[in-house]
Amino acid sequence: MSGTIDQAFVKQYQAEVHLAYQRQGSKLRPTVRSKSDIKGASTVFQRVGRGTATSKARNGVVPVMNLEYSAVECFLQDHYAGDWIDKLDDLKTNADEIAVLAASGAYALGRKTDEMIIAALDLGTRQALGTGTGQTDADGLTRAKVLLAFEMLGAMEVPDDGQRYAVVGWKQWSELLTLQEFSNAEYIGSDELPWKGTQAKRWLGATWIPHTGLTLTGTIRSCYFYHRTAIGHGAGAEISTDVSWHGDRAAHFVNSMMSQGACLVDDAGVVRMRCKE
């Protein structure tokens, strides 16, 4: 066997793992503010306060807004997903082991990316809880609870600019399907029907996404309504791969890795919807 055959494996695996990561890896990374090519162990997301417009006297000095600036530091974490390909086992199977490990590694790293983003969402303190019907912890995801979260984002002047997202569990997605406003073409038009695809849909000016990895505490599932800029994600190293031959094991070890992190940038832009499950 050529001593450089591993390089061909690396290139093939690299292409496959990137494709799988983008296709069925992280579902939440496109919904948050993301920075790539970070140098160092952390990156900083800037947060700018609100400005106030005032008047001035004729020929007077223009008053300054005195904007408040603050920074949120996002620390990167290193993660790995690897496995062995036995030389002789590879000859006995009909499956393309490189492709199988490419998909498995990409999915594992995608889930890890989403875990970090969800952990950042969990740091949010604003909750859509009320005393009205359908607004308590004893309820699932109801119309009343969704509208309360919608009101809370509006009250904080979170932009309704097409960059709002809502991520819910599959139980909550099923509950949404029972709402006429969510699933009936007479309310939202035929182009936005959730029945055409269950990965995402538009409603209330936001993109709604079902997800299996949201935090479940006892019987309470934490779902979120948020703005893209409220959560920061940083990548110091995108997915890279290493394929090495181990003669003592008569096997190749295929390892994919990444260095990424996530943080809560603006608590005002995240509303938690606690839903009984």
Outline the secondary-structure elements.
Blueprint: H1 5-24, E1 33-35, E2 42-48, E3 69-75, E4 77-86, H2 87-92, H3 97-121, H4 143-155, E5 164-168, H5 170-176, H6 180-183, H7 185-188, E6 201-203, E7 206-210, E8 216-217, E9 220-227, E10 231-246, E11 251-264, E12 270-276
Parallel strand pairs: 1-10, 5-7
Antiparallel strand pairs: 2-3, 4-11, 5-9, 6-7, 8-9, 9-12, 10-11
Helix pairs in contact: 1-3
> Span from first to last CA?
55 Å
Helices and strands: which structural class? alpha+beta
Count the helices. How many? 7
CATH class of the largest domain: Alpha Beta
Protein name: Phage major capsid protein
Overview features:
277 residues, alpha+beta, Major capsid protein gp5 fold, 6-stranded mixed beta sheet, 4-stranded mixed beta sheet, disordered N terminus
Characterize the structure shown.
The structure is a single chain. The chain is α+β, with helices and mostly antiparallel strands. The protein folds into two domains: 5-48 and 68-121 and 233-262, Major capsid protein gp5 fold (2-Layer Sandwich); 143-231 and 268-276, no CATH class. It has helices spanning 5-24, 87-92, 97-121, 143-155, 170-176, 180-183, 185-188, and strands at 33-35, 42-48, 69-75, 77-86, 164-168, 201-203, 206-210, 216-217, 220-227, 231-246, 251-264, 270-276. The strands form three sheets. Strands 5, 6, 7, 8, 9 and 12 form a six-stranded mixed sheet that branches. The protein is globular, with a radius of gyration of 23 Å. The N and C termini lie far apart (55 Å).
